[in-house]
């Protein structure tokens, strides 16, 4: 029944049990170890090579999947082991994610500044490669002060986010060399061959647990302001855009929460259907909309934060204000996109 | 045929000729004179009383209608008289419109700042009444510098637009006392009893001329980027939002042009159908969307202009940047609203 709910056109013929979970965890653990080996071999320069970036992504990817499966299918696993493992995996994937997040945020903000200034006067960044010297591209002198502002804003964001990224890189390197990390890696190495299932796991149906994960997602989505989100140009995302609160908009939090629950639901499905299972493209689209929501939300916050830098020029601050609002519009656009894809999904599975 | 195109459910039984035009022009001229008398009686203080504001609006309203009818139905009217009259009416309604435009722009921008700062710390403006002392409301000291920025941006816009409005008021008073104005008023007084129709006007069908006005509108709409406008969150309106050009966005011009052509089409219909004719609500909705487009476009330009004020604080500039982007977003929302109402219209009359 739960499986029918998940995929009405392709119901599973028989209950999926703990053996499928064990197989999934073993393969993700193997993937984790492979990525770790690759990461060690490809070096650790800040920014790093393409291979090293891909390896770090693969590490995070498998850590998230192991952690998510431990959460959704908790009753089938040794409780002490599971409870000890999850926070360590969360710490690891969180630490590894920071460097990439800063690089992606800078890329997003510079691309937006390019679009907004309609000029090629901004630093030609390629985040993900070695960081260029900050402020490397001087603003073209014949342009008006607002475009100078855009170039200065770009240079300021470049400095701040490159610094943050460099720090995140050092933190990640330290983490990967720490005894804490080695303890996690050892546990994952054991997991690759030996999954601590409970005695009952072999005959326990995973379906109801996967359905519960889906239910948590649906409940959280039901609490979202989807009617507003589905009405274009509702101007909600920029409300309080000039409020004094330096923290990210509280209105974003429920969307971030749905993003996490959607991911858990997706991983729970992967366990049920296996590596060659059907891909739900609507689920992917909804997830991409929520990723975009998170990225735009954090980029908007970074622009607002940069505007608090002491002694910046008014033209720089103006450009950062335009940029902040632009990214909050992106937040609103992402909510609209999520609403559209979720609506299709609900109609399709009703 | 033209009438069927205009109003398929209510075709006019017989051709409407020059007599209807004469009746329309006489009644608009009478309205003009009534409004002028009322305006003189209700005084001329800056900001003015509600009655004086209403009288000025009625003056502009009838001036626009006379001018528009002279344009659309030109072949039925004495050419020399008509060509002498139109620029004078345009000058008059343009001059009278400025004071109201500055007041409405300030109101729109302060309302947006209120919304964006989610606070009551901004000057409690009531544009349309006597202007308050600039910067009358001090920012609450416990708020962060961005909200201080919003309050300062509000005070700056208040100063600049109140000054512009005061100047526009003086200019309008001078205009109303000028010999140029008295010459127009005299001509309108004659028009109230005697419309200079051509000899053929009494038997000329107005239909084809009204249809030509509608055709000009349709052609201009067909040249608009409606596919883009109908796709929510296309982010077109803010492209070049940081470009160095201080002039309003060139991308707005075709929309402003459609706004004028839509108004001409509406007035042409009023002549055909008379004062008790059917109101096309879809046409009204499309016109309101274009009014909103124009207002938001000019408000965005005013925010950008204010950001060029020398020696403003970075927090003020930041708030003006957010405000500019917010109003450009309004521009985009208005285009979407126009696209939606126009689409309905096209389907309904197809």
Q: How many helix segments of chain A?
A: 11
Helix content of chain A: 55-70%
Which H/E pattern describes the elements of chain A? HHHHHHHHHHH
| Biggest beta-sheet profile of chain A | none
The N- and C-terminal alpha carbons of chain A lie at a distance of: 14 Å
Oligomer: homodimer
What is the largest interface, and how many residues per chain?
A-B, 48 and 48 residues
* Mean model confidence by pLDDT of chain A: 87
| Whole-angstrom Rg of chain A | 22 Å
Total domains of chain A, how many?
2
Shape of chain A: globular
Structural class of chain A: mainly alpha
User: What is the tally of beta strands of chain A?
Assistant: 0
Structure overview:
The structure is a homodimer of 350-residue chains. By secondary structure, the first copy, chain A, is mainly α. Chain A has 2 domains: 159 residues, no CATH class; 122 residues. Chain A is 69% helix and 0% strand. Chain A has 11 helices and no strands. Chain A is globular and about 65 Å long. The N terminus of chain A is likely disordered. The interface between A and B is large, with 48 and 48 residues.
């Amino acid at each position: 029944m739960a499986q029918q709910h998940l995929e009405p056109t392709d119901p599973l013929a028989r209950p999926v049990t703990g053996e499928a979970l064990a197989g999934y965890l073993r393969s993700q653990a193997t993937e984790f170890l492979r990525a770790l080996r690759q990461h060690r071999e490809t070096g650790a320069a800040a920014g790093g090579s393409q291979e090293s970036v891909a390896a770090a992504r693969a590490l995070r990817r498998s850590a998230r999947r192991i952690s998510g499966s431990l959460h959704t299918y908790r009753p089938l696993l040794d409780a002490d082991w599971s409870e000890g493992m999850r926070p360590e995996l969360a710490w690891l994937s969180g630490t590894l994610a920071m460097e990439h997040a800063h690089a992606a945020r800078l890329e997003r903000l510079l691309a937006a500044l390019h679009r907004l200034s309609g000029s090629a006067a901004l630093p030609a960044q390629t985040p993900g490669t070695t960081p260029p010297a900050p402020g490397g591209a001087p603003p073209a002198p014949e342009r008006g002060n607002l475009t100078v502002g855009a170039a200065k804003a770009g240079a300021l964001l470049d400095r701040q986010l490159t610094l943050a990224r460099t720090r995140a890189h050092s933190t990640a390197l330290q983490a990967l060399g720490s005894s804490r990390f080695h303890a996690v890696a050892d546990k994952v190495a054991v997991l690759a061959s030996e999954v601590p299932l409970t005695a009952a796991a072999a005959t326990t149906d995973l379906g109801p647990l996967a359905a519960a994960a889906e239910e948590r997602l649906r409940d959280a989505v039901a609490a979202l302001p989807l009617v507003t989100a589905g009405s274009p140009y509702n101007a909600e995302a920029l409300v309080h855009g000039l409020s004094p609160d330096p923290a990210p908009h509280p209105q974003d939090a429920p969307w971030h929460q749905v993003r996490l629950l959607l991911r858990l639901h997706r991983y729970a499905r992967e366990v049920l259907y296996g590596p060659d299972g059907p891909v739900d493209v609507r689920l992917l689209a909804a997830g991409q909309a929520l990723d975009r929501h998170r990225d735009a939300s954090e980029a908007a916050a970074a622009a607002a934060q940069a505007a608090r830098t002491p002694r910046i020029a008014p033209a720089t601050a103006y450009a950062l204000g335009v940029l902040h609002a632009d990214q909050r519009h992106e937040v609103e656009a992402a909510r609209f996109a999520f609403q559209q894809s979720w609506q299709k999904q609900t109609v399709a599975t009703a």
